[in-house]
Amino acid sequence: MSLGGMHQIHGRPEALPLSASPLFASTDVDEARARVAEVYCDHRLDPMGRGRFEARHNRLSGRALSVNVMTYTAKTMITPGALRDFYLFQYPLSGHASIANGTNCHEIGGGRGGVVNPEEDTCMIWGEGCAQLMIQVRREALQKAARSHFGLPTGQSLRFSGANDMRAGEGKAFLGLLSYAMSGEGLLGAGGLMGQQLETMLMVGLLQTQRHNLSDRAAETGGPLPRAVRLAEEYMRAHLTEVITLETLARAVGVSERALQAAFRAGRGRSPMTVLRDLRLERAWQELSHPGPATRVTEVAMQLGFFHLGRFSEQYRRKFGCTPSETLRGAGRL
């Protein structure tokens, strides 16, 4: 069923998308709060209307994100505080909701959706019969996509604002992609390369269709990033374990070293070699958080060109908030 035909479902369970992936259905407020908290975060759940309360939640999980469809039949206040670990895109399929996310307050529904930021305290009021399509995205995954495709500077937070009309143009195209992801083709959550690419496309779609603090930069450059930066970073990712110099990058991209440095300053606010270091740190995090039997911190660092282990550990800690050894220990090996 396409999302375009889902605007008047009035909470009917048989009409909810993702019916093949039910998480729970309950008429008990405490049970509903506990089940939602298991996959989102702890929160208060307070029905406000006099109507019968029923909650239903369908969920399809991937590696970096999950697609969810939820409904509360009664008018309901949800108070989670700060989401902390994830961003939450919300798009009502029926009804409306009021969102207060720090100073970012907006109404969604009638073809408009928005994203809740993880750092600010949040309170939401869902109207009676509101059914919402939501994408829960791991904070670090969406930040990484924003760095890769929109030039989010290191250390800067990605912050969304307001509600966005999704009924035409890129918004409509994004909903079409989301409808495909929910269609039961088996890509999302399957763990294969195509599933991962689909998740990346959904994250880029959110960044492209929702207003955030990088939107003006994208508009000024006429696209997400200058072409030279995109090509240089593609080369970096394909050769992270090899020796890469500024000369190597400029030759691979087909521009002068000075032009490449200027493109990175305009698109990233950083030098090419600083971006390369961050990409290598991110690869190190991937290796250490998903280790094999023989994975060791020293070998990972050396393979990626970090020959001063103390400096590698400090750069890693500044970027991820923990040491390489702590990442490996948390993944079950040291």
Automatic annotation (TrEMBL):
Transmembrane segments: none
SMART domains: HTH_ARAC
Protein name: Transcriptional regulator
Any GO MF annotation of the entry: DNA-binding transcription factor activity
Keywords, in A-Z order: DNA-binding, Transcription, Transcription regulation
Lineage: Bacteria, Pseudomonadati, Pseudomonadota, Alphaproteobacteria, Rhodobacterales
InterPro entries (UniProt xref): AraC-bd_2, AraC_XylS_family_regulators, Homeodomain-like_sf, HTH_AraC, Tscrpt_reg_AraC-type_HTH
Pfam families in the record: AraC_binding_2 (PF14525), HTH_18 (PF12833)
Domain HTH araC/xylS-type: 230-330
PROSITE patterns linked to this entry: HTH_ARAC_FAMILY_2
